[in-house]
């Protein structure tokens, strides 16, 4: 559709076949990669010392056990489907790391079962097994052997490991002379060569300096594109929003919420805020209901060749697909798509029409907005806003998030209106 008639209405509405979901939001048409079923885990914490065997027996006869039970995980049940990028978040002490160690078979549960379908590779403590008295080269071969690689396989991948770690000038030095960041970079570069069906990651996206973190991010970008099953435990909500298909919020050893990663990230961040009063909750609810009475946003996607994507290459043009409903006729020029970068700086704001006479009739609609991609490396989010006579009212915040892949440092990106090459409303 050309610019001259880009807002012309048609009788055809683009629809996509619905994806069946489980009760927890996972795609039901994929096989289960990991199933955690009613898992409990507790530890015995000593409360007093027994100086001798005699004292221990005497305390036992008197009913003094000398320890207390700490319940860490309480009735944890969820499953992860093949090809999912699944996030686990929670405050320190909530049970996240214990859950990962149960999944990785480092711990065994008190009760319940954990079932995996495929080879599971944990990246929980990078560098375990490295010897500080050996050189970087020798540690690559040592750690590779621990991961199950033969010497010939390590020979074949050695140059790639060194190049990824950016440690070519240091490989003949002993590991004890490395900085902590250099050690982690080497360990991660070896670990990602392990070809597992399920990757278990505990805060490994925070390794190294900024340049190396971008390499790690691009590695996980490719893992997501290749539909690998990934479990990520993190305190970084941008990583949850950027990578995860679903996420789970653990509080006090129980699953508080599981589902959409944006909702989970918001719930985690909100858990650090003081509780809201009943009046504040009622006012926010009334405001949301008032906005819904005009426009309801059902879904927003970034499309590449008609397929939803969360990751885009630099200069890869895209289409914004907006599925929404109006309860009454509105002016198309009053419905805006706003885009912000990761620093909350606006990079684009435009209405669905510049023509004051174009109306959007009451009912269901899908708008497609084709955009030339001039954005640089970084994270971006889309809000949908409604313009009233007096002010712009937010209809849906964080309606969609996406990430531009690349190695360049984030820079100021602004999409000029001329880069919006086509708009259609069905």
Automatic annotation (TrEMBL):
PROSITE patterns: ABC_TRANSPORTER_1, ABC_TRANSPORTER_2
Keywords, in A-Z order: ATP-binding, Nucleotide-binding, Transport
UniProt feature, compositional bias: Basic residues: 1-11
Stretch list, region Disordered: 1-27
SUPFAM superfamilies given in the database record: P-loop containing nucleoside triphosphate hydrolases
Boundaries of every ABC transporter domain copy: 34-277
Origin superkingdom: Bacteria
Molecular function terms from GO: ABC-type transporter activity; ATP binding; ATP hydrolysis activity
One GO term describing the cellular component: membrane
CDD domains xref list: ABC_KpsT_Wzt (cd03220)
Xref: InterPro entries: AAA+_ATPase, ABC_transporter-like_ATP-bd, ABC_transporter-like_CS, ABC_transpr_TagH-like, Bact_Polysacc_Export_ATP-bd, P-loop_NTPase
Similarity annotation: Belongs to the ABC transporter superfamily.
This protein's name: ABC transporter ATP-binding protein
